[in-house]
UniProtKB/TrEMBL annotation:
Keywords: DNA-binding, Transcription, Transcription regulation. Signal peptide: none annotated. This is LacI family DNA-binding transcriptional regulator. SMART domains: HTH_LACI (SM00354).
Length: 340
């Protein structure tokens, strides 16, 4: 059965389409009796407003575009949950796209979001993104835009992130207090905001406790196991070898755990291990992984709130500062025991 329209209701009740439209909106211009007739007929015939027609009339789609590197990533799936919760409560839908850590795909995703007339965009940069001209162009046109987690400092838009510096500081200090002295750090692309912030926190903790910052203990890799294995092998070949590894993500920590096991290294007796994210399975690993918990869902919620504020109050200049949400050290067996 074809969907009933306002014209159909008007024809059936011998009313004008404008009268039916105003009655459905609850306008004070329409009498209570006419409103009742229209609403009862609309309910009986299962009338549903056409969202496309409504969006054209209001010049809004009520859709938020979300572009993330990878939905399968635990952090981003939780952030999306937060975004969707706020969007749903505010009457918005969410269109989710992935860059798959690829700059060109990020460009295409942004273009697709614009073609589909999203009201605003929430975006976390891919690991390949160094040129932000496509986002600067949106900002210059006053298109509502919020960055989260992986951000670009040069872009004057709202940015919502975890406190990466404090999280990395806490992770490194925990290892130092557990007696570790040669702590390696493995991060991803050097130009990324999260990489720089976490490296800075690691370095500050070493400095606080009088330990030297050793460039030979720092590595930057992709996320594939084929890249992590040789990095771990190189670190273990040093003399003396590292007695701990702090990774910039739990995904890297999982790769390190696999590599250490292959090389016959005991965790934590020989090498302690700390990650960053707090995967849902972190406590199920062997050994359970000590990690930094990020407030992913809260980041998504705050990002969505900031975006909707831009959309609904375009006359107000958006707050373009960085909002940092606190992280939490979760201690498990991958750092317990061993050296003291």
């Amino acid at each position: 059965m074809e969907a009933i329209t306002i014209k159909d209701i008007a024809r059936a009740l011998n009313l004008s389409t404008s009268t039916v439209s105003r009655a459905l909106r609850g306008s004070y211009e329409i009498s209570p009796e006419t409103k009742r007739l229209v609403m009862e007929y609309a309910e009986r015939m299962e009338y549903r407003p056409n969202p496309i027609a409504l969006s054209l009339k209001a010049n809004r789609s009520k859709v938020l575009g979300v572009i993330v590197p990878q939905i399968a990533n635990h952090f981003f799936s939780q952030a999306i949950n937060g975004i969707e919760a706020i969007a749903y409560n505010r009457g918005y839908h969410v269109m989710i796209m992935q860059s798959h850590e690829n700059y060109e795909r990020e460009l295409i995703a942004v273009q697709q979001a614009l073609v589909r007339k999203v009201d605003g965009l929430l975006l976390s940069l891919s690991s390949q993104t160094t040129d932000i001209a496509h986002l600067q162009s949106l900002h210059d046109k006053k298109f509502p835009l919020v960055l989260f987690d992986r951000v670009a400092s040069a872009l004057d838009v709202p940015k919502i992130i975890a406190d990466n510096y404090e999280g990395a500081f806490a992770a490194t200090e925990h290892l130092i207090q557990a007696g570790r002295r040669r702590i390696a750090h493995i991060g991803i692309a050097t130009y990324m905001s999260i990489t720089q912030e976490r490296l800075a926190g690691y370095r500050a903790a070493l400095e606080k406790h009088g330990l030297p910052f050793d460039e030979t203990l720092i590595r930057h890799v992709g996320l594939g196991q084929h890249e992590i294995d040789p990095i771990v092998s190189e670190l273990l070949s040093q003399s003396p070898a590292p007695d701990a590894i702090f990774t910039a993500s739990d995904r890297l920590a999982l790769g390190c755990m696999t590599a250490l096991r292959q090389f016959g290294v005991q965790i934590p007796e020989q090498v302690a291990l700390v990650g960053f994210t707090n995967l849902t399975v972190a406590h199920l690993l062997a050994p359970p992984l000590t990690t930094i918990e990020q407030p992913a869902q809260e980041i998504g919620q705050m990002a969505a709130e900031r975006l909707i504020l831009q959309i609904e109050r375009p006359q107000h200049k958006p707050i373009s500062d960085i909002q940092k949400l606190p992280t939490k050290l979760v201690v498990r067996e991958s750092t317990a025991g061993g050296m003291k």
